[in-house]
Amino acid sequence: MRFSTLPRHACALGALLALILSGCAATGPSGNDDTLASLGEELPIKIEKDAVIYSARAKAMEEYWEFMNNAPADSLRIEALRRLADLELERSEETYQKQLEKIVEQERLISRSEQIELKGVNYEKAIKLYEDALKASADGGIDDPQVLYQLSKAYEQVGKPEKALEALNRLLSSFPDIKNRDEVHFRRGELFFSLKQFQQAELAYSQSMVVNPSSQFYEKALSQRGWSAYKQNKYQKALFSFFAIVDRKLRGIEGEAQLSRGDQELLDDTFRVILLSFNELGGASAITGYFEQHGNKVYESRVYKGMGDFYLDQGRIKDAADTYKAYVARDPFGADAPRFDQYAIDAYAKGGFASLALEAKIAFAQQYRVNGPYWQKQSLAKQEQLIPVVAHNMEELASHYHAVAQKSKSQADYQQAFIWYRQYIKSFPGTKKTAEINFLLAEALFENKQFEQAAKEYETTAYQYVKAGKNAEAGYAALVAYDEHTKTLQGKRKEIFQRVAIGSALRFGKTFPEDKRATTVVMKAAEDLFALQKYDQAAVAAKSVLEIPGKTTEKMRLTAWMIMAQSELENGKYGQAESAYKMAQTMVKNDPAMNKTIEEGIAAAIYKRGEAMRAAGDVEGALAQFKRIATEAPNTEANIAAQYDVAVNYMAKEEWSNAINEFERFRHKYPTHALQDKVSENLVIAYVKTDKPLYAAEELEKILRNQPDLNQRQQVMWQIGQLYEQAESHDKMIAAYEQYVREYPQPLAQATEARHKIATVYKKMGNNQMYVQWLQEVIRSDKFAGPQSTDRTKFLAAKATFELAEPTLTSFREIQLKAPLKANLAKKKERMQTAINAYTQAAEYGVEEVTTASVYLLAEIYGTFGKELLNSERPAGLSPDELEQYDILLEEQAYPFEEKAITIHESNVERVKDGTYDEWVQKSFTALKKLRPVRYAKAEKSESVVNALY
Fold first, then answer.
1. Residue range(s) in the chain whose domain bears CATH number 1.25.40.10
2. Lower CB density within 10 Å: C or N end of the chain?
3. Rounded CA separation 358/360 (Å)
4. Does the pLDDT at position 325 exceed 70?
5. Residue 159 has what DSSP assignment?
6. How many CB atoms lie within 10 A of CB 728?
7. Rg (CA), the chain
8. What is the pLDDT of residues 473-511, one digit of tens each?
9. Is domain 1-174 given the CATH code 1.25.40.10 in the classification?
């Protein structure tokens, strides 16, 4: 393919250019020596009839090289370089072919990859020349389209499709409107396809088609686009392209015979891939769906036939037959319908399925059945003639297959019997003969263990053909079938089916009351209803049994009363349940187990009645019922539960003392009963209500011993501590809270609270050592709390720190500044610093009430030290002047402490601005009135304390 020719001023090349132009479309590698060497052995080349061509090409290449070196313009050099690349490509291809022929002559095998590698070696120089030409043209500001085109073909030849694509993409990018872009897009599609990038290939083929529908590449692109979609499993999309080819080829002609051989081959290939696509989409159903969507086509029969034949070749006989039948279904009255039915029959025969072939033949005959398609096309006279024939034929077929099935026990044989029996029933409804056929159908179904369907057909015979005889027999047979089917089921489905069977039994009893089996059937229905927990219906069924005098046994009547009693109990009709149980009780004599069951039932009825009264708010009524059990059914578990509930009812009435007495009685009477834990829980409540926290705590201790749940244990343990605290049982309270801290150090806040409580109790008990120890525990727990620290834990830690600081203040105050003054002064200062550190530490928590108190006491410490310094004992033996001088020195020493005290007090007073004014701030203000009366005492007279600070 040529994109351009040399400029006119290049005609100096003369005949040389004419020679090259005549062969420019050919491709072939150059560099014979390098290529031969790459084969690993010498392959002698005989220069025979091609010698003239080689010589002319070599001469032309030499002149191009010379021309290129002396070309007056870059454009001419680029063209010469491209021509050289074309000639090199041609030479490379010829060399490659010679090498390949030599390898074949030597009977050596060469793989596809080795062929590509051999080509790569030969084409290397040509590709290099094209790349140089391309670079030169790009340096000139524009790509050379023909260089890009040839370069892509060269890359394609050497098995570098990615490089070939790169060149073609660059060609289209630089020359989007190039005339042969249909070919370029097509080649891109082919390259993408070879790389298995089918989505890109599909797009490229589509782009090729858009260029020109009459392009020589259009149909190829259309076909390849279909294949690209097919490779992506986009079978519907693939069919769109493939059918487009078919429509294109068949448009305007009457038959495929008018097609050329090539078109016929293309059409055959297209239909083959169409069949492959439909196979992936599901076969016949997909074909039908396609034509229903896109309309009827003249070639539909070919598609269905081809699909059927495809399955037939694969041995998929049933699929093949179904496909043929699918075509008949598309047009059952069409000219080809019988032929396709015959295809189905032939398929079965070919596959060796004799029985299926027989069925197919019968199906063929069915096309002419009563009210069938063929039947409706006939006149009334013709239909009248067909009735006895069709009826007789159907009956014989049904009898035949039933007899065969009874011998063979074959499912297929039974199915054939079913088909013909049902076909007869459908074709000739309402006759006496039909009733007989219906019963035979049910019998066949039962024999084949299709019990559910058999039961339904028995019911149809029994209740829809009442005058035909065998009705009661069929009704009872339905119950037998239901029973057999129930044995095969499990779970929810079994339960659902049992309900259906019960309904049939009740229907039997109602329809055939005089039948000797009616009472037994209804009795079983009552039992089954009870088992299914359909208590309303069970009670009704049991009652109906009792209403059949003279036809029930004593055992049946006892069973009926028990079903009624238990059903009414479940229905919440406790009075009726108790009465029914007592009726049953009168019928039992020497049966301890049954008597025990009935007594338990009576107790349950009374107990539940009491529960219902309690729930309705009738506590007195509930108490009466619970107490009545001890008389009516004393030897029952319900009687034990009732005694417990008597106590619970007293609690509901807030009669705490009675409740406590009843619970204690229950505890001593039934020490191992499961309700003992509940007894303790209720006693806790009762003791709390009666202000007996010590007893409540002891009950909680019992609960704690049997409580495995950690969260519940934590709550109970805390409640125990609180109750002991409330009871002022200090030792037990301490033990409870200490256990809590050991077992539940988390959450920290509550554990810290427990430590605080322990410390507080030790303080009350006068145990200073333990008091200090637990205060330190409070401080330590908050210190290492990290993110678990809360305002409360900080407060408790601050408070504890403050309280621990008090002994340091006392110790500071104990030291008197008297002889020996120097020693006492040193001690005083040391203890002063200890106290300052302690109160500073407390203040640093930032807890308001602790901070204000600590700040006040810090100020007092400084002030006290200053005062005591001034009032300290004077050394003996001082003269008046010396004493005066000593006093002056003391004042100078004491003054900073007094100023420090004032500053600290003022910092406390300053808190008023932030809304803090507690007793410690007030004390600081009072102290300042004495220390700085000019400012603070005057402010008190003229304005409020707060205003004095602003």
1. 1-174
2. C
3. 5
4. yes
5. T
6. 12
7. 56
8. 888 888 899 888 888 888 888 888 888 888 888 888 878
9. yes
